[in-house]
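>> received
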Amino acid sequence: MTSGILIKPGLVLSLLLLALSPILAQQGIKGKVEWREGNLMPGPDLQEIQGKGIRRTLWIYPVITTGQATQDGVFFSNITALPMKKVRSNRHGKFCVKLPAGMYSVLVEEDDGLFANRFNQHGQINPIEVIKGKFTELTIVVDYRAAY
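>> returned
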């Protein structure tokens, strides 16, 4: 016995995808943390510089500025914002973290504090934008022991 309701397969699929879209929509930051040290001054004998992937803990904040932290060179402490997430890179330096769309600051945990060496014209510390439905690529070069 049928109820007389005709259901089109395309409609069912569309409704299913709509219901699952919050689950399927994945975005965040993925990339690599690299270590560089030593004399990296340009010269005729210098070969291409390749960083070595390292295992580190990354602290991810809603985008923060230099006015929201105590700065000592490339190290930060006493950050007034709360971190949204922490993620650890693997032994090759690779990491991936899911985040809502928005602007973030990513800092690397080192013995001397949280490391960052990129800033924009607004004083934002290592700013990165996550766009809905996409993973933003980020390579962080930890180079406070390198000379350029």
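>> The mean pLDDT is 87.
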